[in-house]
User: Which sequence fits this backbone?
């Protein structure tokens, strides 16, 4: 099993920045995929972005491209979501997710993520 621990959420003004962290532990395979999802009140959970560690590839939903960046620290088994130019529409609970089945998926956003963090609240005020 893989355990995920998220941190870094909070309250920021529109235009501000936050950096979310997700530390992974447990049975981590080389081709692990790490993803970020979010769920706003009254809306379905949606894909934010993800990274394929083995191929050093990333994918983002269109609404965050150019504003959000995913990066990794392999030594710490940690993935980051740097969020800049935040908008009130970004307000949501953000979840870290992972799967060790990276070799089976050609699409990062459509992969079936097996493990999930507890979520961290991001609130952007206007």
Assistant:
């Amino acid at each position: 099993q893989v355990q995920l621990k998220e941190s870094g959420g909070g309250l920021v003004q529109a235009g501000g920045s936050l950096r979310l962290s997700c530390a992974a532990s447990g049975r981590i395979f080389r081709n692990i995929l790490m993803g970020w999802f979010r769920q706003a009140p009254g809306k379905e959970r949606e894909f934010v972005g993800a990274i394929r560690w083995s191929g050093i590839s990333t994918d983002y939903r269109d609404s965050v491209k150019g504003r959000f960046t995913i990066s990794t620290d392999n030594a710490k088994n940690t993935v980051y979501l740097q969020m800049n130019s935040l908008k009130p529409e970004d307000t949501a609970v953000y979840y870290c997710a992972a799967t060790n089945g990276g070799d089976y998926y050609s699409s990062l956003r459509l992969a079936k993520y097996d493990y999930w963090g507890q979520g961290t609240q991001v609130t952007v005020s206007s």
In short: The mean pLDDT is 94. The first strand starts at residue 2 and ends at 7. The chain is about 0% helix and 50% strand.
